[in-house]
Design brief:
This protein has 17 helices and 38 strands. It is of the alpha+beta class.
């Protein structure tokens, strides 16, 4: 389409944008300059759009806190950022905060200036030259260079935990509110209120991803331009798609020399059915495409839908997340669905409907002590209005009193809310069963009470933890080697490592975590020799191997199965399929993703995936493969399994026991015995390591004792040439070593328990 404006002629294209009936006329000068284009919002009101050469007016939420209540619900966008591990979620979230002025006006101006330059340079295929020019310019500015460097490198603002910064991963989801000026806004100021949630990328923290997706209307799905589609990318995409969320695809790290954006975009288009033209190109490192990403969020993610019975007076706030702080108690992250929430309001909490039961009103009520916005630092505002996302401190002591999906309302209107059956937002029950179970013991025998308090407090902030029961005592559980401990459920091996690291970082408490075990289902069969007690269940789930049926009982074992998706370069196809078969994988299938990457799917026992599949896969593929797991159908499968017990000097160490396939029991037992021989400290007495299965010993190893030379004293040989004197001294030493072996205690370290996890 051609359009005329004065003496200039434009070439224009009419394009539909989003689901709200907006139409954008995008045009360009024939001289390769950009013209101004028009946007019609969902109210059919024309709004002015900025041209490519025109810089939008800078606006920051920190300057307009008192005016946010003027923003209608139609101008609110709730979104999160999802991706595979290390695909740039936190980096991009930090750049969005910088671009919208949450980090200060100077940084906002710098971000706009550098972002426009680098984006234009990349679009003109001159990115390397322009980026080098910007670097040289910043060096010439003297004192400003260090400031620019600081701005460039500070890209993990939403990672607040020490373990997140040390490992470079996101463990807990975090949120922030931003203000952005965009022509699709319906208010007079032209503002869009953006509520953003940054999510973890690892599968072990999928609970945080599910909580985030349940509270937003759209998600930005990032793809690494170097690595392409990875396993966890498929997982988070499936979660967002299942919840019906609007998904915006974007490539990251496009300025890296090894990036291949065109190939990755085509692969994404084929695998996820995205239009290649809608896949944005971004880079947090050089701020490429940040403005385009914000524009896409404003145009394509729908605003939250108002409640059908909202009259503007009844308060309903949905709890997104909650965590515990020692000095303030429970802090809730909420999203206002209707009404206004103010400090000193008396509130009650409604639990969401679960399993067909109606909503339950908790008996306690609380007074709001403090509330405000998160940007990502908390800013106290005194009030929260509809559409806003902020924090609330109300004197709660346990986050389980305000679970994700719960509804907060005023105490005085709670009866009206329930009796009139007014609309409550639907909330998926975010109840996740643990997939691994381990015992946690203090390093010192007398430190159980301190460890118990620390684990309980940590569980207040980590909803993925599941504390079941007290495991072990001075007489059981860990035997004489471990004192009393706690039985804890986890979401994966990385979750176990992060849990132990957080205990050390936040509570300065070093604990021993036993090798995680998966739950098994035991079905008892009729036996002539062993009769089940009257009323005993014919089927039970074993989470602790101390409950494993004794030898002689007849029973079947059903082990949990998972569907594994592996993405790796095609040249490793043979090695991956061989590894999968060695891990008892079945239903193996392959599918090409692009010219280089293949997708491998198989059903595998969860226990074999947990042990050392990750390490073996990385070794087999030189670190290029990634994998993701989901529950298989059927979720359990019968297998010929056997329990292998480990003994130290004839004492059974229950935490070291493991379950494996009967055919591999002896080989795996030998590996564990050899590893224990290497990691256990040498004692003054002989340490005998034995592995036992089905009532017989199948492997063993010995650690030699320290031995003093009793035949030499003060540099001279004792007894001269009398052999009987020498034999007497050696015999006396032998008796002492034997006595020490029966009374001595072997010290078990974390390395000893880690040796049982990997048995290949």
């Amino acid at each position: 389409m051609l359009a005329a404006s004065g003496s200039q002629i434009y070439r224009c294209t009419l394009r539909s944008v989003g689901k709200r009936g907006c139409f954008v006329v995008i045009g360009s000068f024939l001289e390769k300059n950009y013209c101004r284009h028009q946007v019609y919002n969902h109210h059919q009101q024309p709004c002015r759009h900025f041209s490519k050469q025109e810089t939008p007016q800078l606006v920051s939420i920190t300057d307009h806190l008192d005016e946010l209540h003027k923003i209608p619900l139609a101008d609110v966008r709730n979104f999160c950022i999802i991706a595979h591990v290390d695909h740039g979620k936190s980096s991009m979230a930090s750049r969005l905060l910088e671009y919208t002025g949450n980090l200060g006006h100077d940084r906002q101006a710098t971000a706009h200036q550098l972002g426009e330059k680098t984006t234009t340079a990349y679009n003109q295929d001159e990115s390397s030259a322009i980026i080098k020019e910007n670097t040289d310019t910043s060096k010439e500015t003297g004192s400003k260079s260090s400031k620019h460097k600081e701005i460039k490198e500070e890209i993990t603002l939403l990672d607040t935990l020490k373990v997140e910064r040390e490992r470079g991963i996101t463990v807990k989801a975090s949120a922030a509110s931003m203000l952005y000026k965009h022509p699709s806004a319906t208010n007079d100021q032209g503002w869009i209120l953006l509520n953003m949630v940054d999510t973890p990328g690892h599968a072990d923290f999928g609970v945080e991803v599910s909580k985030s997706l349940a509270s937003i209307e759209g998600a930005v799905l990032l793809f690494d331009s170097v690595q392409g589609v990875q396993a966890q990318t498929l997982s988070v995409y499936d979660k967002a798609r299942a919840l019906g969320k609007q998904i915006l695809p974007a490539l990251t790290k496009i300025d890296i020399p090894s990036a291949r954006p065109l190939e990755v975009a085509l692969a994404v288009s084929d695998l996820f059915a995205f239009d290649p033209d809608t896949i944005m190109k971004t880079s947090a490192r050089n701020r490429i495409g940040v403005r385009e990403l914000l524009d896409s969020v404003c145009e394509n993610i729908p605003p939250p839908s108002p409640l059908s019975d909202d009259d503007g007076t009844l308060l309903r706030a949905k709890v997104i997340d909650s965590w515990f702080e020692p000095r303030r108690g429970v802090v809730c992250l909420v999203r206002l669905l209707s009404g206004i929430l103010s400090e000193n309001d008396r509130i009650s909490i409604v639990e969401p409907s679960i399993d067909g039961k109606g909503p339950q009103v908790l008996k306690d009520n609380y007074s709001v002590q403090e509330l405000g916005l998160v940007m990502p630092d908390r800013i106290r505002t005194g009030k929260l209005h509809i559409g806003q996302m902020g924090y609330v401190v109300a004197g709660l002591r346990d986050p389980r009193e305000a679970r994700p999906g719960s509804i907060i309302s005023l105490q005085k209107t709670m009866q009206t809310l329930i009796s009139n059956e007014m609309e409550l937002p639907s909330s998926a029950a975010l109840i996740h069963q643990s997939v691994l179970y381990a015992s946690v013991h203090p390093m010192d025998g007398d430190g159980f009470d301190e460890m118990h308090a620390a684990v309980n407090r940590l569980a207040l902030n980590d909803t993925g933890l599941e504390i079941h029961q007290t495991a072990g005592s001075s007489n059981n559980g860990g035997g004489p080697f471990l004192g009393p401990g706690l039985r804890v459920g986890f979401q994966g091996l990385l979750h176990v490592e992060v849990f132990r690291q957080r205990l050390l970082d936040e509570f300065e408490l070093e604990a021993i975590v036993t090798p995680p075990k998966v739950p098994y289902r035991i079905q008892y069969l009729e036996s002539k020799n062993y009769k089940r007690p009257p009323g005993a269940p014919e089927e039970e789930v074993i989470e602790d191997l101390t409950d494993w049926p004794a030898q002689g009982h007849r029973f079947k074992v059903l082990e949990p199965m998972v569907d594994v998706r592996i993405l790796a370069p095609m040249e490793y196809a043979g090695s991956i399929m061989e590894l999968t078969k060695r891990k008892r994988g079945i239903k193996i299938q392959t599918k090409p993703v692009d010219e280089h990457i293949w997708l491998f799917t198989a059903a595998m026992p969860w226990a074999d995936v947990v042990t050392d599949f990750h390490d073996d896969l990385k070794s087999t593929t030189a670190g290029y493969a990634s994998f993701d797991v989901s529950e298989a159908d059927p979720p359990q499968q019968e297998a010929d399994l056997v329990k292998v017990e480990l003994l130290l000097n004839s004492e059974v160490v229950d935490p070291l026991a493991f379950v494996c396939h009967r055919d591999a029991a002896q080989s795996q037992a030998r590996v564990v015995c050899q590893k224990l021989q290497e990691v256990l400290p040498r004692q003054q007495f002989v340490t005998v390591i034995q592995a036992k299965a089905d009532g017989r010993f199948i492997a063993s190893a010995r650690i030699r004792a320290y031995r003093k030379d009793v035949l030499t004293k003060a540099g001279k040989t004792v007894g001269g040439g009398d052999i009987s004197r020498k034999k007497k001294l050696l015999q006396k030493q032998k008796k002492g070593k034997k006595r020490q072996q029966s009374t001595g205690k072997v010290q078990l370290s974390q390395a000893a328990f880690n040796s049982v996890i990997s048995r290949s």
